[in-house]
Amino acid sequence: MASSGTATSSQLSQSAFLGINWFLFALCFIAFVSRIYIRWVCFRRLLAEDFLMLAAMLLLIGIEALSQYYAGFIYHLMAYVNGTATIGPDFVINTEGMLKSCGSAIIMFLIGFYFIKVNFLLFFYRLGSRAARIFRIVWWVVFGIVLVCGIASVTMGVPTFKCLFGGILYTFTTCETVEYENKFFTYFRASVALDIFTDALIGFTVVATVLRGALLSEVFEQTEQGGKAFNIPWVWFWFHVELCTAFIVACLVSFRSLFVYREQQSSAALRAAAMQRRRSHYHPYPAAVGGSGTLQGSGNGSRGTLAGFRGRIKLFQDSVLETCRTLEGVFDGEVTLVDMPELSGRSHLVAVAEHESGTIEEHAHENISNHVHDDLEHQGEGITVLDTVSVSPMEQDRRSASTSLSLDSL
Predict the structure, then answer these.
(1) What is the pLDDT averaged over residues 342-358?
(2) Helices 91-127 and 158-165, axial angle in degrees (round to 10)
(3) Beta-bridge partner residues of 408
(4) Longest dimension (CA), the chain
(5) Residue 11 CB neighbour total at 10 angstroms
(6) Most Cβ neighbours (<10 Å): which of 139, 215, 244, 303?
(7) Quick check: 248 pLDDT over 80?
(8) Does the keyword Transmembrane feature in the UniProt annotation (predicted)?
């Protein structure tokens, strides 16, 4: 319904307004569904910040419903203000409903912003739960500041919102003045400043917030009569872009937790295989009599691979993954800040593997003696094996060494 030639239509048409809004909403919905799926796969439960993101998604759904229903009325009002549209029989009722929906959308935008900010705060709290006490003190200070700024952002706009909730007569008589324009600009600047300040405290991206603040000059547009009108589509659009950008970034954090979880599964399988080889006295270099020893198999645990370039890359990767595991609150022994039933079994497995690795060296000499003893028994001809007697560990080590030397001489 917007006519061509106006500032609003040249900046953003109704079809572009709805198309971009729905496209961003689709991205947010996909990111949110992926986040919930990843949380369930990794933790088998939702965390506290996931419910905040669910609330933000419900706010987004409400905003999209309002924009879809009232977009035509918004652009018709802008066209009427510019003198390019006439008043219909339902103009007053439709315009009052549209203005109230605009005020409701702005409030939902502001609440959604701070839901996402608190989501990041809870995420960082989980990461730093084992940090020094000063971290928790700073966290609570930042949390309090963010809450105060959020309440201030909404309450500061109460005088401004009167032009949206006060009825069409109040809007056209009071809200078209220079005084209201200055008041709205003051509120808008303060809102952007609080957004940037709280984003900086949290460590969150401020690109979209700065972009919205840089477009303050477009909030009011020049009309054909020489006055100024509140550019509703432009403000709505950039609020929507900022909220969707923050929402998508918040959901992308969950993809890293899935990556870490998959790597933990693979690492647990490798540890289980290594522990099984240790229990079965697996020896990668069984030396036959008269031979130099042949590598039984290859793999991440073989000496040939670990000594080569690929082995070093694997060790570096394991070191990086061990560091990344803590980013989701996973610490040594697979202890987590949330209940993770899938990892509890691996926790026991790692503990057993570490215990086995601590005791395997104590039995190294005994295992080598057993291997040599078995090889001698399979020779059959001309080799006499001494009867097994009870000796001290030092004597047993000396006999094992002498037996190995005699084999080399053969």
Answers:
(1) 43
(2) 150
(3) none
(4) 117
(5) 16
(6) 244
(7) yes
(8) yes
Contact in structure between 136 and 144 (CB atoms under 8 Å): no
State the CB neighbour count (10 A cutoff) for residue 397. 16
Residue 231: phi and psi, rounded to 5, are -85, 85
pLDDT single digits (tens) 76-134: 888 887 777 778 788 888 888 888 898 889 889 888 988 988 888 887 787 766 667 78
Token pair 């203005």 is found at: 99
Give the pLDDT band of residue 346 (cuts 50, 70, 90).
very low
Name the helix (H) or strand (E) containing 222: strand 220-222
Name residue 380's amino acid: G
Three-state secondary-structure class, residue 299: coil
CA torsion sign for 9, 12, 16, 19 is: negative
pLDDT exceeds cutoff 80 at 247: yes
Helix residue ranges, H only, 175-231? 178-202, 207-214
Secondary structure class of 384 (helix, strand, coil): coil
CA distance 402 to 235: 88
In one-letter notation, the amino acid at residue 82 is N
40-45 long-range contacts (CB < 8 A, ≥24 apart) are 41/258, 41/261, 42/257, 42/258, 42/261, 42/328, 42/340, 42/342, 43/338, 43/339, 43/340, 44/339, 44/340, 44/341, 44/342, 45/338, 45/339
- Say if residue 65's pLDDT is above 90: yes
CA atoms of 315 and 319, how far apart (whole Å): 6
Q: Could you tell me the pTM of the whole model?
A: 0.57
Q: How distant is the alpha carbon of residue 360 from its chain centre?
A: 40
